[in-house]
Each structure stands twice: as C-alpha cells, then as structure tokens.
Amino acid sequence: MPHGGSTVLVSRLPERLADENAVLALSEAAEALPADGTLLLVEQIRPAGPDEDAALQHLRLACLFGSELRTQEELDALVERAGLQIRRREDVGWDHRLWVLAPAGGR
Asked: How far separated are the first and last CA of the chain, in Å rounded?
C-alpha cells in the first residue's frame, strides 16, 4: 500500500481476494493513512435480485481468485474488521459503490 498520502484510492481490490486477505489488504491501507486520512474504496456489489452479468462476474471471481462479489453488508463487515470506519457510501453506477473510509478509533 502507498504511504505518505492523505487520500488513497483502492478500486476493485477486495473482489479479487478471499475475506481474510481482503481484510489484511484493507488493514495495511488503514495503517498507511495519517490520523486524518481518507481511504476511497470502489467495489462492485452483488445485486439483490437476479442479474446475469453479475452472476457471470461472480463465477469468474470464484474460479480465478476464490473470491466473490459481495453485498454492501459483507463489504461493510470487511471494512470494520480492517480497522476502518465508514464516513459515507455512494452509488457510482453499474452496481459499483464508493466507500469513504477513515481509520477507526480517531487515529
């Protein structure tokens, strides 16, 4: 993870990692942030309803990386386990969501 910046952008990294590895990568990003830093996370989320394109992407990730598309709640849980707090979330289109995160505990 890059060090020294007050804002770090991570895009579609956790989707290629199993849960424990995703938590580790996000933890490393959290540790690299200054106390007032921001981590921007962009991830595709698994839609609630049937979606042929999302199902195909989910299968690809499972076969290639042993990972999956996750729901917002599943990604929120990974973020919290990594020691980050959610400032806000926003939809950015095509089943993608932006999380604005900060180090937890007021670091």
From this structure: 18
